[in-house]
Design a protein that fits this description.
Elements lengths: L9 E2 L18 E2 L9 E6 L3 H10 L7 E8 L2 H11 L3 E4 L1 H6 L5 E4 L6 H10 L3 E5 L6 H14 L3 E4 L6 H11 L6 E9 L6 H4 L7 H16 L7 E8 L5 E10 L3 E8 L8 E5 L3 E4 L8 E4 L2 E4 L17 H13 L10 H18 L9
Parallel strand pairs: 3-4, 3-6, 4-5, 6-7, 7-8, 9-12
Antiparallel strand pairs: 1-2, 9-13, 10-11, 11-12, 13-14, 14-15, 15-16
The structure holds NADPH dihydro-nicotinamide-adenine-dinucleotide phosphate and the ligand O=C1OC[C@@H](O)[C@@H](O)[C@@H]1O.
Length: 372
């Protein structure tokens, strides 16, 4: 986090040179002060798309003294300006480079589609910016390794935005498992199905389409969380294809030591109950629905609900004010000078990417990025 002592909220007139990059600020830009200790974490938003909208709305459910959105960048300035106006963001940039040069940003949230995660992560981390990048981290493990290596080389904080891990439901699951509430876990069964065939980025290979990367990652992340980041001993995957040549339905079995198992189904053609069950030798934990953004947990038959806040503006995705939890986790990491989160670590992201690669290999899905 930058150490810049300037009077807070000094509103400057238009005569002020643009903060950087050349685009004239939309309106007088309050000078955002920053003091390492307990000032707001200053966010830059990369892309003016759907999830960026929801992430920005989620940030607004947190105390403004803790989180401020200082700038947004989109490929087209007009899209950034429209986004900035909608969300009252002081600075709007045409092109991501201007955001990378903005000295008043502590962390960038990357909300572009998967094929552009690698290039944008490298852009911002090479500019010494901390980064929170949407899932899936990348198109394959090779790209994921490049991103994680760049975070190390640039000595910046990096996290893959597997927002589910920061939900109160996930925190409670980890607590229950840590205290042995259900004994030794022997089985994790999960599913994620959603009718997405009308969504270009889910259908078109050049936009990063494919069910494993988009939906399967949620079943896989739950499995890996329950099994504490342990590598599976064997992976068996089968699936079907969309007419566009990417995976539509994936059925995956992961075998771990001591006859521990995980099975998941993900599909982009129909809605499934989207529940998960974690079975131990002494009990059962069940997520009764919305496994990617859970607000209810059933432990040995007893249900507890964990509602998310209502959005102040329209959102595109279910429960996406729940991204507040990952945003606050990032802030806490930055305040402690950490370069990664223990809850969604670099090793966690690499494991997800490696298993995603193996599932795709067995099913036969190949992206152009696999041969670059
Ligand atoms: N955590 C969650 O719950 C969710 C996560 N996601 C993830 O977020 C990412 C974005 O998804 P979503 O917001 O639905 O996507 P959008 O279709 O809204 O696209 C997001 C941005 O990506 C850029 N982009 C889109 N198409 C292209 C293209 N053809 N060439 C170059 N850039 C392009 C644009 O950036 P610009 O504005 O700069 O033009 C666009 O605004 C995905 O990786 C997805 O996995 C998505 C939904 C939910
Ligand atoms: O991460 C996501 O959440 C659930 C679906 O909306 C999916 O397309 C999206 O990428």
């Amino acid at each position: 986090m930058m150490l810049v002592f300037v009077l807070r909220h000094t509103v400057k007139t238009d005569t002020m040179a643009p903060p950087c990059g050349g685009e004239r600020p939309l309106w007088p830009t309050p000078t955002v002060n920053q003091c390492q200790s307990n000032m707001a974490t200053r966010w830059g938003i990369c892309s003016a798309g759907k999830i960026s909208n929801d992430f920005t709305v989620a940030l607004k459910t947190l105390p403004p003294g803790d989180h401020q959105v200082v700038a947004v960048a989109a490929r087209k300035l007009e899209n950034a300006q429209e986004f900035a106006k909608k969300h009252s963001i002081p600075r709007a940039y045409g092109g991501y480079e201007a955001l990378a040069r903005d000295p008043d940003i502590d962390v960038v949230y990357i909300g572009v589609i998967h094929p552009y995660h690698l290039s944008t992560c490298l852009l911002f981390m090479n500019a010494k910016k901390n980064v929170l990048c949407e899932k899936p981290l990348a198109m394959n493990a090779k790209e994921a390794k490049q991103i994680l290596a760049s975070a190390k080389e640039n000595d910046v904080f990096f996290m893959e935005a597997v927002w589910t891990r920061f939900f109160p439901v996930s925190v409670e699951i980890r607590r229950l498992l840590a205290q042995g509430e259900i004994g030794e876990v022997k089985m994790v069964r999960s599913e994620f199905g959603m009718p997405l065939h009308g969504v270009p980025r889910v259908m078109q290979k050049e936009l990063g389409a494919g069910t494993m990367l988009d939906l399967g990652v949620y079943c896989l992340q739950l499995t890996c969380m329950v099994y504490n980041g342990e590598k599976p001993e064997s992976i068996h995957a089968t699936g079907t294809f969309m007419e566009t040549g990417v995976d539509d339905i994936d059925v995956v079995t992961l075998k771990y030591s001591n006859n521990r198992l995980a099975v998941f189904i993900c599909r982009s053609d129909i809605e499934l109950p989207n529940e998960a069950v974690i079975v131990g030798t002494k009990g059962t934990i069940r997520i009764p629905g919305h496994i990617w953004c859970p607000t209810s947990l059933v432990v040995n038959g007893k249900e507890t609900k964990y509602p998310v806040p209502e959005p102040y503006l329209p959102i595109n995705f279910i429960n996406s004010t729940g991204m507040r939890y990952e945003a606050e986790a990032v802030r806490q990491c930055l305040l402690k000078g950490l370069k990664e989160s223990a809850v969604m670590s670099h090793a966690d992201s690499l494991l997800l990417a490696e298993v995603e690669d193996e599932v795709r290999r067995q099913i036969g899905v190949v992206y152009s990025q696999d041969s670059q």
